[in-house]
Every structure is written in structure tokens, then in C-alpha cells.
Amino acid sequence: MRNNTIRLVGITAAALLAATACGGREDSAGTTAQGDCGGQQTTGITDTSIKLGGIYPLSGPASAYGEIPKAVKAYFDYVNAEKGGINGRKIEYVVRDDGYQPPKSVEEARRLTEQENVFALFQTLGTATSSAVMEYANQRKIPQVFVASGATKWGADPAKYPWTIGWQPSYQAEGRVYGQYLIKEKPSAKVAVLYQNDDFGKDLRDGFAKGIEGSGVKIVAEQSYEVTDPSVDPQLRNLAGSGADVLLNITTPKFASQALAADAKNTEWNPLHIVNNVSSSMTVLKPVGFDKVQNIVSSAFLKDPSDPQWAADPEMKLYEEKLKKYAPGLDTKTAFYSLGWASASGIEQAIARMKCPTREGLMEAARSLTDVRSELLLPGITMSTTPQDGYPIETLQLVRFQGERWTLFGEAIDTRKESR
Questions:
Q1: FRET pair for 372, CA 20 to 30 Å: which of 103, 239, 308, 354?
Q2: Which residues are listed as membrane-spanning (predicted)?
Q3: CA torsion 397→401→403→409, rounded to 10°?
Q4: In the predicted model, is pLDDT for residue 32 greater than 50?
């Protein structure tokens, strides 16, 4: 269990953080910071600037995620222009395309750190791709901060990977939430699972399986797919013959749209359709047709920009105003943009809390957040970390699609409490 791992590595992780605090070690280039931070890595940061690098699939099978960095850049442009940067430092943001291919991800990480000389890698997107980068970043002692993936591994072993930390709720936590929901609402559910055959898909599937242990909810069929597959239609046909009354859809956006469309076309099979959070955006649902995705279930941790209940919300109003100003032409109602905005706000909070303006100082700050707000998080959801707990956000809210938007239902679930 994740919490057992956290307890085992706690002492070691705390020692590592102490080593990286102010007055720590020299970097490989022998660069030194000023004052009490001597001997720490200052590549990519000066008194007036910070250089961050992001790696996203701007092309390839997961290119829908390529919209996220547009909003990240807009947020940084807003911070630079209207706040004077973060603690007086303007942010330079460099984005690279890895096509959702792990070898390319490492190549771009090298380019960003060895040629562009970025201070930190902020948001490498994807589980397999970010896993490849994690090995490189930790060998080189380069911050890989707020990874855009919910893989459990980002926080499971801070002693081994002290330079990597996630941001969004873990996939295992998300899977447990769906399991708890079915135990309560459909205690005899028969579940068919469609999942991407990689760490992302397996992580969420395993979390769900653990969440239903000892209950009457059963997995009766599973089908996996590869990101290089042209379609998941064959898998959906196989699952439709399983007799399941629930379909758990663990896919990335392209395949989520295909699965939702295939489910809608099959009038002889009408399961409760649960789609994972990463594929719950309007860019996934709208091409299928809102009338064909009514009452599907998912989870959320961010305010939905398309939901009128947030129209007067100060954070939402700021997001819409500034996104229009600094990224004209982007649809403020698109969830990928609000996600990028929220995550950029998150790294702003971590950078602002650095005691030392160094790479070590950033990791210390990222691992010592206490109930910190990031823009657009749902009410009651904050970022919290410790040296032993590398999961900044672990609270989720169930949502159901009704009409033309997601609606919240039930209570927000703190999966830290649920997993104890």
C-alpha cells in the first residue's frame, strides 16, 4: 500500500531534504549561490529571471494534451506583466514536443537542461514519458516538478527519487474512488475495464481493483490497447459481450472519444460508463455528442470553466479575463486550459516559498506545502506535501454529466484518509 511505502521511506527522505536545504551541496558545475545557500545549484535562475522547461505531446496520439502549455504560458505572461514575476523574477517558459514517445522525452529533457539550461522541468506530461525522464532528472539532480500525470510512482519513493514530484491526484487514488462509489451505489456491479497498456492504465486499474476488494463488485472482463492502435472498437465489442453493467474507461482523450462513441452506438449494451479524469474534458465529449454521453460518471479536482455555477467565482473570473488577454483566441471553457492555468499557479506557489533560490530550494519548498491554494481548485481542495508524502493533491469530487456540463455529487473524498 502507498501509505506503508511512505512510512518506510520517511526518515531517509527527511534526511535527503535536510541535505538539500540552505547551505547544502555543490552542483556538478561548481556553481554557487549567495548567502546561506552556497554550494547549491543555481543554473537557470538569476536575481531577475527563472527558466522553466515543459515537455508535452504536441504531436502524436496524445496531441490533445498539447493545448495545456498554451494556458501555462498565458499564466506566466500574466504573472510577468502584472506581478513582476515571482519574487521579482520573470519566468521564461520553454516547451518541447516529445510526440508521447519516452525516448524522445529523454532527448528533449537533455536539450532543455544541457542546452537551454533550464532551472527545472515543470510539467513533463504522460506516465511512460515522464518515467523515462525521471531517471535522467534524478541522476542529474534536476527538479522534475508537478509532473502532469497521476502515476503513483511520483510520490511513492521520495528517498530514491527526491527530484521528482507529482501534482494531480494519483491514478490509484482515483481508481479507489470509483470502487467506493460502486460499492455504495451498485454493490453487485459487474465491471468491464478498458485500459491503456502502460503504467497509467495499469495504475488506475489496480487502484480500482484494490478499492473493491472484499465487496460484491466484480471485474468480469478486461481489454487493453496500445497507444499506437488505430481504434479501440474491437476491444469495446469484446467487452460488450461480457454481461457487465459497468464500463470503466481508463483511456487517453483520443481513445476515450472512440470508446464513448462505440458505447453509444451499441444500443443492446447500456452500462454505467465511468471515464477517468484525464479524458473527461469537453474536447473529448463534444465530438461524441452531449446527448450520447448523458449520466456518465467521472471525478474532478478543478472547477469546470463550462459550469455556470462558477460564473461569479473570483478565481474563474480572473482566469477568463487574463486568458483572453494573454492568449487571445483560446476558448476559456476548455478544461485543458483551466488545467494548465491551475498547474502554473501551483508552481508559482512553490517557487514563491523557496528559502533558497536554488534547485535544492525548489524541491524543499515543493515538499513542504501545507494547505496551499492553487487557482481553480474545487472548494476544500488544497496542495499539501511533506518530505514523506509527495502527492500534492489527493482529494477528489465525483461528477456526473448532465445536459451540457459536469455536475458535482456526493462529498469530496480525501483519499489520504480513505487509504489509512
A1: 308
A2: none
A3: -30
A4: no
